[in-house]
């Protein structure tokens, strides 16, 4: 067998042979961790050829033959591999003429332990009390080729007949319903399970699972079967998910006016899973913490997280599955829309979560932070090789994508948005689409220039900073000048960045009518003036971008910042606007545009803040400043400042939950407690110790308090507490609780325990999917930051083996590096990754180094202003 060499540029598969229907039979071996496969693919040969090229990796193709439907002749092919592009080249001695035929392949593969392709996953069976194995799949973006040779590109759609040969004591699931199940005539311990033909779909959406599960079933009003599969003994943990899964199917059917096209939608938990979930059509796979809720031991945040993940994956059944992006450049059409729609769906089913209101705090703020980097990327970005494709599963595709959709939705209105979505989904059903197809549908529905406006947000990276100045003032009106330029986190623009312009929907609120947003024309030039009639600046204020619908930041004149601060203090401004102001002024400070003193002054206006969403902005600001100021001699003063600011919220909320309190109240309490613990509040830490001891002695501790309490006792340095937590970790079967405990252990301030926790992260006691979270928890403390980096350096081979260039590596690199603040560390990390390259993650590394240099510049600039501020406050 030949293997190609060289560094030729990536090219997509040739289009001369197209699959129509795959007939695939797979036989996994759960003892030796291999599988055998046979497939016959009905294809259409478009043009004469003597070779067929398709994707395949980590598969040994034993034989290949082609038979023509026209004359029935069969010819054998030779097999070679292009390992770089993950392809198999099947070469035939005779020319294959245009027409239909069958490509038959016999092959073998491995059930790997990397959580990609067709892989094995380990669990403890309550029946045998032994470690057992299941087999499952994760094909997005480019790993179906690890399970069967295929045309593994999203635009090359086909139908699939799946057959799995598996042990009789295992449940077997796939995208569609079972149509036949019989004993394997060659082995009575095995069964042959065949499934209905799928709709036409992309390879990355194919899925199958072989394992032991308990089933819960319900149905939608239209009769679609909805099932949740939980591990043995955890059936009751699937009830919450089942209720939500039914609700979201019905919500999206009503919203899009397009019925879910399959007869069933299964949701199944997988012990080892790299992502939160995967939207395989008809069979959604999840890690346990993203699907299962223990009524007694799951927190409010866990319930909210499960709800949003199920809603997200259900939205994908339309965005991604029914209509699929033409190529990964348009990934955001899948992920941005599913993220946007999850908020609408959860808000509809769980109004008590106030989830639509949380959009800005969760998605918009996260995307703004990443996209201020010079090392960001456009929403639409050309990608080719698998490593490049993996790298764009990030906050830009998910959260910026969702944020610009939210901006567009607000601009054109809900009804036009619904009409445009229905048109888009109907036209492209069972096909592929590009971003331009979406804009065309929304422009037709709204009669607004969507095709002109939206590409300024998706085809260039970054976003604008609008600088406000007062042009003229009279007794009854004010003329405001707006200037737009690209926001850069280091305050420096390149020549190309200085030429960027966006088409910005402008709106604002004023002190005279704080609940009424005024709309203005699109802002598409470098500057524009707007006039506020019947408005006086005397004791008045105005604020751009109400509710943070626009994806941009704003800088105001000093006097206006002061006036807006008072509107924060007296809560005249809505919570989302209070969130935006504190986040904007922090970003402006990091960029060197305003002083840290201005940030601290603004923070003081939030001492009576009682809204969870606004508090998310306060907590983020305090957290960021805590990291930076920990490098200075003002740290003790800052901790006193922070403790005073947060204590008022604690006095109102208390440590204990109150009967019937809102979900967001519980979430806010968790933030407040964690922040006071980080500020070493003695009263809170003492109360946490008492709660923990009572918990150990059998008194129930609210799941919403556990993580904060666990961190407090770990920080206290008591060895008994540390050992008790490890005991609790080993005793619990709930993955949510294991993650809570494992990440709390990272808060230790003891050098020896820091090393023990890092070693624990890579031990057999921590699942690979969770290991990186434990390392990050250590790196998040000033004490553990350098130790975590050294552990990473020392174990880089193991890191690459576990995570490669997948999403987990991306997050780990950023979280490990971003809190350093010296040129020495920036250079050291640069040198390290030049020697230890992660294909496709070059921008991730560059962003991390950029953050270090932003931190370094901040310290050089702000140490003196910090001292001055704290000397007078």
Q: Distance between termini? A: 75 Å
Q: What is the level 1 CATH name of the domain at 1-212? A: Mainly Beta
β-strand amount: 15-25%
Mean pLDDT: 95
Q: Tell how many strands the DSSP assignment holds.
A: 28
Question: What do these coordinates show?
Answer:
- The model is unreliable at 1-6 (pLDDT under 50).
- Helix 3 crosses helix 6 (395-412) and helix 20 (719-731) runs antiparallel to helix 21.
- A ten-stranded mixed beta sheet has the order 3-6-5-4-7-2-1-10-13-12, with no helix packed on it.
- A hairpin with a 4-residue loop joins strand 5 and strand 6.
- The chain has 28 helices and 28 strands.
- The chain has 873 residues and is an alpha+beta fold.
- Among the domains are: 1-212, tricorn interacting facor f3 domain (Immunoglobulin-like), CATH 2.60.40.1730; 319-458, Orthogonal Bundle (Neutral Protease, domain 2).
- It is 42% helix and 22% strand.
- Its cofactor is Zn(2+).
- Its EC number is 3.4.11.-.
- Keywords: Aminopeptidase, Hydrolase, Metal-binding, Metalloprotease, Protease, Zinc.
Topology:
Layout (H helix, E strand, L loop, with lengths): L16 E13 L4 E12 L3 E7 L3 E10 L5 E9 L4 E10 L2 E12 L6 E8 L6 E8 L20 E9 L3 E4 L3 E7 L2 E9 L12 E4 L2 E6 L5 E6 L8 H18 L7 E7 L6 E2 L4 E5 L12 H17 L6 E3 L5 H19 L9 H13 L14 H6 L3 H18 L1 H14 L3 E3 L1 H12 L3 H4 L1 H4 L5 E10 L3 E10 L8 H4 L8 E4 L7 E2 L7 E7 L8 E3 L8 E3 L2 H12 L5 H16 L5 H9 L7 H18 L5 H19 L9 H16 L3 H15 L6 H13 L3 H13 L3 H11 L5 H11 L6 H12 L5 H10 L1 H8 L3 H11 L5 H13 L6 H31 L1
Parallel strand pairs: 1-10, 16-17, 17-19, 20-21, 22-28
Antiparallel strand pairs: 1-2, 2-7, 3-6, 4-5, 4-7, 5-6, 8-9, 10-13, 11-14, 12-13, 15-16, 18-19, 22-23, 23-26, 24-25, 24-27
């Amino acid at each position: 067998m030949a293997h190609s060499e060289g560094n030729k540029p990536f090219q997509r598969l040739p289009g001369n042979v197209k699959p129509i229907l795959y007939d695939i039979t797979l036989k996994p071996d759960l003892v030796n961790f291999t599988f055998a496969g046979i497939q016959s693919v009905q294809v259409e040969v478009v043009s004469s050829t003597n070779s067929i090229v398709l994707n395949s990796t980590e598969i040994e193709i034993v034989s290949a033959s082609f038979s023509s439907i026209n004359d029935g002749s069969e010819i054998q092919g030779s097999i070679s591999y292009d390992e770089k592009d993950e392809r198999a080249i099947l070469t035939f001695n005779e020319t294959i003429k245009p027409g239909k035929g069958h490509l038959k392949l016999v092959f073998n593969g491995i059930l790997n332990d990397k959580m990609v392709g067709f892989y094995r996953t380990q669990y403890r069976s309550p029946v045998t009390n032994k470690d057992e194995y299941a087999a499952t799949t994760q094909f997005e973006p480019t790993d179906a080729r690890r399970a069967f040779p295929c045309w593994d590109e999203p635009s090359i759609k086909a139908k699939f007949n799946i057959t799995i040969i598996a042990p009789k004591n295992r449940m077997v699931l796939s995208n569609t319903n079972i149509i036949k199940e019989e004993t394997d005539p060659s082995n009575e311990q095995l069964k042959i399970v065949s499934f209905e033909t799928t709709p036409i779909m992309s390879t990355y959406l194919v899925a199958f699972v072989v394992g032991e599960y308990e089933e819960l079933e319900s149905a939608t009003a239209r009769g679609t079967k909805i099932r949740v599969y939980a591990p043995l003994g955890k059936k009751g943990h699937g009830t919450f998910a089942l209720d939500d899964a039914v609700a979201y199917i019905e919500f999206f059917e009503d919203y899009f006016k397009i019925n879910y096209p399959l007869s069933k939608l299964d949701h199944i938990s997988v012990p080892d899973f790299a992502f939160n979930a995967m939207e395989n059509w008809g069979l959604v796979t999840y890690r346990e913490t993203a699907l299962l809720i223990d009524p007694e031991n799951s927190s409010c945040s866990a319930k909210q997280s499960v709800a949003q993940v199920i809603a997200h994956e259900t939205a994908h059944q339309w965005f991604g599955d029914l209509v699929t992006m033409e190529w990964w450049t348009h990934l955001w059409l899948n992920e941005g829309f599913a993220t946007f729609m999850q908020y609408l769906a959860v808000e509809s089913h769980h109004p008590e979560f106030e989830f639509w209101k949380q959009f800005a705090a969760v998605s918009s703020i996260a995307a703004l932070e990443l996209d201020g980097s010079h090392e960001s990327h456009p929403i639409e970005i050309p990608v080719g090789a698998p490593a490049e494709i993996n790298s764009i599963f990030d906050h830009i595709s998910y959260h910026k994508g969702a944020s610009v959709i939210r901006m567009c939705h607000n601009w054109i209105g809900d009804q036009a948005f619904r009409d445009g979505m229905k048109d888009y989904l109907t036209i492209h059903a069972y096909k592929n689409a590009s971003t331009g197809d979406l804009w065309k549908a929304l422009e037709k529905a709204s009669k607004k220039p969507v095709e002109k406006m939206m590409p300024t947000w998706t085809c260039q990276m970054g976003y604008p900073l609008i600088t406000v100045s007062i042009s003229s003032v009279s007794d009854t009106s004010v003329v405001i000048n707006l200037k737009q330029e690209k926001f850069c986190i280091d305050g420096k623009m390149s020549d190309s960045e200085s030429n960027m312009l966006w088409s910005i929907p402008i709106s604002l609120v004023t002190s005279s009518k704080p609940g009424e947003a005024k709309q203005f024309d699109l802002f598409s030039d470098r500057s524009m003036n707007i006039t506020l009639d019947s408005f006086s600046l005397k004791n008045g204020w105005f604020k751009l971008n109400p509710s943070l619908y626009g994806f941009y930041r704003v800088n105001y004149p000093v006097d206006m910042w002061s006036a807006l601060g008072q509107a924060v203090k007296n809560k005249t401004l809505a919570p989302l606007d209070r969130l935006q102001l504190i986040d904007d002024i922090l970003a402006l400070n990091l960029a060197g545009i305003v002083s840290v003193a201005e940030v601290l002054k603004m923070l003081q206006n939030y001492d009576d803040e009682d809204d969870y969403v606004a508090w998310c902005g306060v907590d983020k600001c305090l957290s960021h400043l805590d990291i930076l100021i920990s490098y200075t001699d003002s740290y003790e003063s800052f901790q006193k400042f922070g403790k005073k600011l947060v204590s008022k919220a604690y006095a109102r909320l208390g440590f204990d939950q109150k009967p019937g309190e809102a979900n967001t109240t519980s979430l806010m309490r968790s933030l407040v407690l964690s922040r006071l613990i980080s500020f070493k509040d003695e009263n809170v830490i003492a109360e946490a110790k008492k709660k923990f001891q009572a918990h150990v002695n059998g008194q129930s501790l609210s799941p919403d308090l556990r993580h904060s309490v666990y961190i407090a006792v770990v920080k206290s340095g008591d060895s008994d507490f540390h050992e008790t937590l490890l005991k609790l970790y080993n005793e619990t079967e709930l993955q949510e609780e294991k993650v809570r405990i494992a990440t709390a252990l990272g808060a230790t301030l003891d050098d020896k325990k820091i090393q023990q926790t890092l070693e624990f992260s890579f031990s057999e006691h921590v699942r690979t999917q969770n290991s990186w979270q434990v390392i990050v928890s250590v790196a998040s403390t000033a004490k553990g930051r350098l130790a975590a980096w050294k552990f990473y350096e020392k174990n880089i081979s193991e890191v690459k083996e576990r995570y490669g260039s997948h999403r987990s590596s991306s997050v780990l690199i950023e979280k490990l590096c971003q809190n350093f603040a010296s040129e020495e560390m920036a250079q050291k990390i640069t040198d390290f990754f030049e020697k230890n390259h992660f294909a496709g993650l070059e921008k991730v590394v560059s962003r991390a180094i950029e953050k270090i240099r932003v931190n370094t510049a901040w310290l050089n600039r702000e140490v003196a202003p910090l001292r001055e501020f704290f000397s007078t406050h």
